[in-house]
Specification:
The complex is a heterodimer of chains A (about 550) and B (about 240). Chain A has 23 helices and 7 strands. Chain A has about 550 residues and is mainly α. In chain A, the strands form 2 sheets. Chain A has a 4-stranded parallel beta sheet with strand order 2-1-3-4. In chain A, strands 5-6-7 form a 3-stranded parallel beta sheet, sandwiched between helices. Chain B is built from 11 helices and no strands. In chain B, α6 (about 105-140) packs antiparallel against α8. Classes of the chains: A mainly alpha (about 550), B mainly alpha (about 240).
Chain lengths: ~550, ~240
């Protein structure tokens, strides 16, 4: 059997092999050690058609395994001009180039270093991959002293190294929390990917969703009819469980709220159960809202490609909010979407003065922190409903669930959304056990597959990066019988399913609003005997 | 006085001061001038207060959370450095002495205080800087990330601290009256250098370090305030 397994399948990898991590760096200085690629650790290159669909330059066919990556004419100038443009446009970047003292406090904080031992996965070295070029071409000491000042020439080898290591980082920012200066490796990863993209070098798992979203409004490339069909299907499923037919408003002009969620919620388990939870909740509240087939993506893979692409995709949400004449925007359970919304949206496409400060029509709470973006996370919205006692909940309907909560990197570290999901979870599920303290909240560990890394062909990297999280889950599974990992991110729902199956078998992944949908007591309908997955209540997992 | 002594004590101080001030101001202005297009929040996202900034600057809590061993080395080093810096003001001016005298401290008490505080700082400084250097050389992971500039900064510090400790603990204790006369002569732009060789050696290395600051990662003392307000604060 083993012979038939391939590097893109988790079963290909022996647990004991992955667990045996060599932390001693290989001989030789990292600056001179050549970069190599093997199956299971790199993403497929972006297909030219996806770059062309976005009007990006230098679309070409290449492979990481090729000796010559067919870099475009004048590629060094393209990279250095790009670097100059970014250095002159971002104070944080400039500071992070200059301020690092290479103390190494970040090293064993990175899930990719923890799982691989590869020195270039230490955040400090990941950043040095770029800093060495910055020093060579933008600082006096680097120009004169060269390698003595930690500078090096920009060669095709550097480009290969960038592709390898900037696509072995999920921009989770755990390192930044521990850095005495708050130096944020995500900034370097974003810069590196942005510079690579100018050479036509990127990962297809990033660029195809971007191209899809640009054309059709969502990462999966679902056409408007497909969105409608999916939502109707979910309403059918919900009716099976609850006996209640919910309405699914789509593209409805004049609705009060535009609801935007990751398209994965509509198409793939277990996200679909979370989407059913939304439908049940909105129906029960009588919320005046609408889905959109144009702004049908909460996520934004542009964040993983370049600032311009992030801006382009994000603009669709505002454009649709304006077209439909809504008052404010409610966002579904997503992770990186909230990095975009919370950090960039306001100054990138906002402020959205044509919208109103999000105000819950049920409780009257004004979400003042979102007065710039006019957009709030559904965990905040639901936590507010619960705090006001506006939901009737029966946690016994999740009786078979023994839950733990995975803080998704972006809502936790970029947004500080730590208490709200927990407040909701405690009300809908009686059995809740936290994982180890240094693996949750702002110190949460990585799913290993965010920032465009959630493909199959890089399975080894994903499993390695997810090892820390997986083992923390296994710990609460063994100690408390935890069988469900709850999370508020669509990428997590997909990637952590793989991580849990591998490192903590027996634990499955559920969205917060799946459990809300289970526990929500709705008017009318039939007594619940089954949960949203259509399993008998109490007999889960 | 010899030519080299005059270069170290009468010329280099002006050069070091100018390079330091111009260099540091240039670096700070560069950071200030570059726009910040987005708010870069990192937990705690509510935005850090002035209190948190002061706390971070005085006690390094982020490092404490992340790496306790390194925190002990780094924090002790910086505290001793601050202590030594304050003590060194006495080399140039009698203000501190007069202040201490005003609160009733006699010459003997002052010498005692100097010996205890200065001796403590001198021992802690050399111990921690050697520990930091040893860490860079012996811990494989840290050796991997260390480049020449990292060692250069530490070796300069070793040279400065060793020559300083030689005066503190060695036979040729520094004559404060002589050093204050020298400092005054510098201020009046008529440098008169009549100082012992150990002092000049110490001064030489110290000035090399000062010259190096603006061109190196030692600028982290300034960058810290920017990164802190940008990353841990809430608004651009």
């Amino acid at each position: 059997m083993a012979a038939q397994r391939k590097p893109d399948q988790p079963e290909f990898y022996e647990r004991s092999t992955l667990e045996r991590v060599e932390y001693a760096p290989p001989p030789g200085a990292w600056l001179r050690n050549p970069v190599t690629f093997h199956a299971g650790e790199f993403l497929h290159p972006a297909k030219p058609k996806n770059l062309e669909a976005l009007g990006l330059p230098s679309a070409h066919a290449w492979s990481p395994l090729d000796e010559d990556w067919q870099l475009p004419e004048g590629w060094q100038k393209i990279v250095l001009d790009g670097l100059r443009e970014r250095l002159e446009g971002s104070r944080t970047l400039r500071l992070m180039m200059d301020t690092c003292v290479r103390c190494g406090a970040c090293a064993e904080k990175c899930p990719f270093f923890i799982g691989s031992g590869d020195p270039k996965n230490m955040p400090v070295l990941r950043a040095e991959l770029l800093r060495s070029i910055y020093r060579k071409y933008f600082t006096t000491s680097g120009r004169i002293l060269g390698e003595l000042a930690g500078a090096r020439e920009l060669t095709p080898q550097v480009i290969k190294e960038w592709f390898k290591y900037f696509f072995q980082c999920t921009e989770c920012r755990r390192c930044a929390v521990f850095c005495p200066y708050g130096i944020d490796t995500a900034e370097f990863t974003m810069l590196g990917r942005d510079l690579l993209l100018r050479l036509g070098i990127s990962a297809n798992w990033v660029m195809e969703p971007v191209a899809n979203c640009y054309r059709t409004g969502n990462h999966l490339g679902i056409q408007p009819q497909g969105i409608k069909d999916s939502l109707e299907f979910l309403a059918d499923e919900l009716e099976e469980v609850t006996g209640i037919r919910v309405e699914v408003p789509i593209n409805r002009q004049g609705a009060e709220i535009l609801f935007v969620t990751p398209s994965g919620d509509l198409m793939a388990d277990p996200g679909t159960y979370t989407a059913m939870g939304y439908l049940a909740l909105f129906h029960e509240l009588g919320l005046d809202y609408t889905f959109s087939t144009y702004a049908s993506e909460g996520g934004n893979f542009g964040l993983f490609a370049s600032p311009e692409l992030m801006k382009r995709l994000n603009a669709k949400i505002y454009a649709e909010a304006r077209r439909l004449g809504v008052k404010w925007i409610l966002g579904g359970e997503c992770g990186h979407m909230w990095r975009v919304v919370h950090q960039y949206m306001d100054t990138m496409n906002g402020p959205a003065d044509f919208l109103e400060v999000p105000t819950s029509p049920i409780t009257g709470t004004r979400f003042e922190h979102a007065r710039g973006t006019k957009m709030i996370h559904i965990a905040e919205f639901t936590a507010d409903l619960i705090a006001h006692g506006r939901l009737k909940l029966d946690p016994a309907r999740n009786a078979g669930v023994i839950a733990t909560f995975h803080d998704s990197c972006n809502p936790a570290r970029a947004m500080g959304l730590l208490e709200e999901p927990r407040a909701v979870l405690r009300e809908v599920c009686r059995n809740f056990h936290e994982m180890a303290a240094d693996t949750i909240r702002e110190r949460t560990l990585c799913c290993g597959g965010g920032a465009g890394l959630g493909a199959d062909e890089n399975m080894e990297v994903r499993l390695r990066a997810g090892m820390g999280r997986g083992k923390a889950v296994a710990q609460v599974r063994d100690a408390h019988g935890v069988n469900t990992l709850v999370t508020i991110c669509a990428i997590d729902r997909a990637t952590l399913t793989t991580v849990c199956d591998y490192w903590a078998p027996g634990v499955r992944v559920a969205g917060l609003h799946e459990l809300v949908g289970n526990a929500l007591v709705m008017k009318g309908g039939k007594p619940r005997t089954h949960n949203l997955r259509q399993e008998p209540i109490g007999g889960e997992a | 006085m010899g030519n080299s002594a005059f270069l170290v004590g009468g010329v280099l101080p002006y050069l070091a001061a100018v390079v330091f001030v111009v260099g540091v101001v240039y670096r700070l202005l560069t950071w200030r001038r570059v726009p910040q297009p987005a708010s870069m929040t990192l937990y705690p996202t509510q935005g850090a207060s002035w209190g948190a900034l002061v706390k971070e600057a005085l006690f390094f809590p982020s490092l404490f959370r992340g790496d306790k061993t390194l925190w002990i080395f780094a924090w002790s080093f910086h505290v001793a450095l601050a202590l030594a810096f304050i003590g060194h003001l006495r080399v140039a001016t009698g203000v501190i002495d007069r202040g201490l005298a005003a609160v009733g401290l006699g010459a003997a008490g002052m010498a005692m205080l100097s010996a205890v505080a200065g001796g403590f700082a001198g021992v802690v400084l050399i111990a921690t800087v050697l520990l930091l250097l040893g860490r860079r050389m012996l811990v494989a992971r840290v050796r991997e990330i260390s480049k020449t500039p990292d060692f250069l900064a530490l070796l300069l510090l070793v040279a400065v601290i060793t020559t300083g400790d030689l005066m503190r603990f060695g036979a040729s204790h520094v004559d404060l009256a002589a050093t204050r006369a020298w400092a005054a002569s510098l201020l009046t732009l008529s440098p008169a250098v009549s100082l012992p060789p150990t002092f000049l050696l110490h001064l030489f290395f110290a000035q090399l370090l000062v010259l190096y600051i603006a061109f190196s990662k030692l600028m982290h003392f300034g960058g810290f305030f920017f990164t802190f307000s940008l990353i841990k604060g809430s608004q651009p």
